Amino acid sequence: MTKNKSTKIENYADLEDKGKRLEVLINLSNDLREKEGRTPISFNDFLFLTNEQPELILRNIFQLFHDMVHYYVPEGSDEYPITKESIGFMDYNTYNLFQKNCDDPFFADRLFSNRFLNLANDFKKGIKNNHIYLFEGPPGSGKSTFLNNLLLKLEEYTRTSQGTLYKTYWKLDIAKIKKGKKSDTILSDELMTKIDSAEISSESAKGQYLAISCPNNDHPILQIPKSLRHKFLDELITDNDFKKKLFESKEYEWVLKESPCSICNSIYNELLDKLDDPMEVFNMLYARKIDYNRQFGKGISVYNPGDLVFSKPIINQTIQNLLNNLFKNEDIKYIYSDLAYTNNGVLALMDIKENNIHRLMNLHGIVSDGVHKVETVEEQIKTMFVGLINPEDKKHYENVKSFKDRIITVNIPYVLDYNTEVSIYINKFGSEIKNKFLPRVLNNFAKIIISTRLEPESPVINKWLLNPDKYKKYIDKDLLLLKMELYTGKIPSWLTEDDIKRFDKNVKKDIIAATEIEGQKGISGRLSLNLFNTFISKYSKHNNLISMEMLKSFFVEDSEKFDSKVPEGFVNSLETLYEFNILEEVKEAIYYYNVEQISRDIQNYLFAINFEIGETVKCNYTGDSIDVNDDFLKNFEALFLGSTSSEDRRKQFRKEVHSEYITKTMSHEMRLENKPIIKTAQYFDLFKRYSDNLKEYSLVPYHDNDNFLRAIKDYDIEGFNTYDDKLKRDVLRLISNMVKKFNYTEAGAKQVSIYVIEKRLVDKYKNFRVL
Predict the structure, then answer these.
(1) Fewer C-beta within 10 Å: the chain N or C terminus?
(2) pLDDT digits (tens, 9 = 90+) for 64-74
(3) Has residue 529 been placed in a domain?
(4) pLDDT recorded at residue 559
(5) Helices then strands (H, E): number in the chain?
(6) Same domain flag for 556 and 611
(7) SS3 for 204?
(8) d(C-alpha 641, C-alpha 217), whole Å
(9) Do both 498 and 643 map to the same domain?
């Protein structure tokens, strides 16, 4: 009894599981039906949609491609915000297009992103549609990854409601054709059996209908006779702004000028002959969403160099027989080429080698004339032809002038933006890799790699800058570091005001135009990843974070690994800029601006210089007790003259200040005008100079202070508590500000601060100005 009860419970459970599985399957089916949207819609419904959303419905592959790109890439921000004259060098975020949900992400730098978006915008204008687009770049530049991801996103986009592109679909009503005014069609039982059971690819006949999907992906609007199309659309569309674009712009020229394929044209004419009623013809006309499927070569066909070349016409004999029997003639030639599959789609050649050379040459006449002969039938070709090519393979077409005029080459060089290069490392090795580096150092690795890809000569930059040599003290002799900043869309603040003013629209255009020859040589993307892996393996297990010293050691001491590709002196220049920048960071971190303290310091100094060295006096202005000694005077004067000023120079400064204090400040302003010292002109002048120089010389009091260096080293250990309170406050402020302002970890802040002090960078860069 118990066993039977248990079995019954199990049966109920099994039924419940089956019910859940069935519900899940039904939900999946509904989701797929909604997503795929393959059910044809009547021509009447299609016209309703055309009026409601004309820009969405009236598109060809080039307009669809443009919309796809902008669907994934948001509007860019303008370049070079420091100036007003824009050349459209935008900062585009291409993450959704080239990286998101891609097995092998492609990272587009700012230069290529602009190049690519400009191309997509030209597609929208309809001015370059009868060309072959070849993306040219050296091996290892990521061309294949770029194109694979681009086609993946195109296919993905066409499955969205925004990415729908319609094609012609005929649903021939056999009964109506039989009853047509001019029809003598008699369909045998045998033929009806064939029609009922025929299911060939996307063409099928069910019941009393023979359904034929246009193999050439004709847009449904093309079935309106060309001579009547303008008038028809004028009456159909109510949006006057769109109609102006439709009838006047190059973008929509195809809507009014293109003709349907030979198959659809023949079906239309035969139906019109049989039915003698255009309305009945259009009742058999439907619109169906084009299915873009790279795997099956529908809408997207990709050919590798080793793929065999087929040129045999495609004839579906079953469909042909059905049409012949239905219309009782052979006027409809159901024949097309493999190029029909990519009409209103993309045909891509992966590298112009081997069989793809032959394919490219075959496309010459097709692209030029827009037609392709299939036996006796002319096939209209409206395809986006794209391909990848290495520079050395251009020889296959560059000597054929007429062919060359039909090719548009888009450079896809090695990455020239160090931020993008860093993103590639992070993608490959994980985001945690950033935590192994001191700030700036990871970027510097990328800059060294990119330096090998840049041309050493920069005629445009040398012409633009009034005196290029003055910057060579701060950056490399070839100004590659300046190039790198400009290529990321930044104007370095360390450029002089005159040079920034001269950075006008013409200069910008010339600089961007010059990038067309950049990135064709140097360390490739693949080699860069290998070098980075070697570098990380060597230094990541070090006790300290990866530093500039380690970077220099890797690229300079092991330079034989790089075949002299890194420009001479570049790493040393990069180190100089790095050291100067971290010196400025430490200065700002230790800098403590206190109005009250500055005021007390100035008042105490003005009072103390009236006494002899060695005296201890009480300041009448602040009440502070002052030991008038050389250290007291030197610390104050160093903020005005620098830490390396000579004793004679300091005495001269002291004498000048004292003279003004006696002859003007004390005798005139304070005694005659009864001003307090903090209201005198000398006080205001010293206060301004003190404030301006305080940050610049903020490290001076600590420069030769061994206790300060030891306190930094002891920062995170118990011995730190043995130092006096002021020194501890200074070190805590230094570390805290390095973390907050410059994104260091506490360990990194300590490491860099020690480096700045021990390397005596204050002395080394005493004559440098702020960059």
Answers:
(1) N
(2) 999 999 999 99
(3) yes
(4) 60
(5) 35, 17
(6) no
(7) strand
(8) 80
(9) no
| Separation of alpha carbons 432 and 550, rounded Å | 19
- The arithmetic mean of pLDDT across residues 333-339, rounded, is 92
Distant-in-sequence, close-in-space partners of 373: CB < 8 Å, separation ≥ 6? 379
Is position 41 within any domain? no
Q: Tens of pLDDT along 162-208?
A: 999 999 999 999 888 887 655 444 444 444 434 433 333 333 444 48
Residues 595 and 561 in one domain: no
Two tokens, residue 617: 């006096």
Q: How far is Cα 35 from Cα 162, in angstroms, rounded to an integer? A: 11
Domain assignment of residue 382, yes or no: no
158's tokens:
């066409």
Report angle CA 330, 336, 341 to the nearest 5 degrees: 145
What is the count of structural domains for the chain?
3
pLDDT 10s digits, 259-310:
999 999 999 999 999 998 999 999 999 999 999 999 999 999 999 999 988 7
How many other CB atoms sit within 10 Å of the CB of residue 545? 20
Q: Give the helix ranges, DSSP H, for 697-766.
A: 700-703, 706-713, 725-742, 746-758, 761-764
For 153-167, the DSSP string reads HHHHHTTSGGG--EE
Length of the chain in terms of residues written: 771
Q: Are 558 and 762 in contact (CB under 8 A)?
A: no
- Asked whether residue 479 is assigned to any structural domain, the reply reads yes
Q: How far is CA 348 from its chain centroid?
A: 22
Distance CA 475, CA 497 (A): 18
Sign of CA dihedral 361, 363, 366, 372: positive
Q: Which of 536, 570, 604 is the last residue of a domain?
A: 570
Nearest to 367 by CA among 353, 352, 347: 347
Q: Are residues 732 and 644 in the same domain?
A: yes
Sign of the alpha-carbon torsion through 444, 446, 447, 448: positive
**Contacts (Cβ under 8 Å, ≥6 apart) of 688:** none
Q: Is pLDDT of 751 > 80?
A: yes
| Helical spans, DSSP H, in 476-547 | 480-487, 497-501, 505-514, 525-539
367 and 129 in contact (C-beta within 8 Å)?
Answer: no
Are residues 559 and 658 both part of a single domain? no
Distance CA 420, CA 484 (A): 12
Q: Tell me what the pLDDT averaged over the chain comes to.
A: 87
- Say what the pLDDT of residue 309 is: 83
Q: Which two tokens stand for residue 478?
A: 């070839």
Phi and psi (nearest 5°) for 284?
-95, 0
Q: Is residue 556 located within the same domain as residue 434? A: yes
Amino acid at 509: K
Range of the domain at 632: 590-764
Whether residues 561 and 597 fall in one domain: no
- Rounded distance between C-alpha atoms, residue 199 and residue 97, angstroms: 37
Alpha-carbon span 540 to 437, nearest angstrom: 9
Which residues partner with 618 through β-bridges? 625
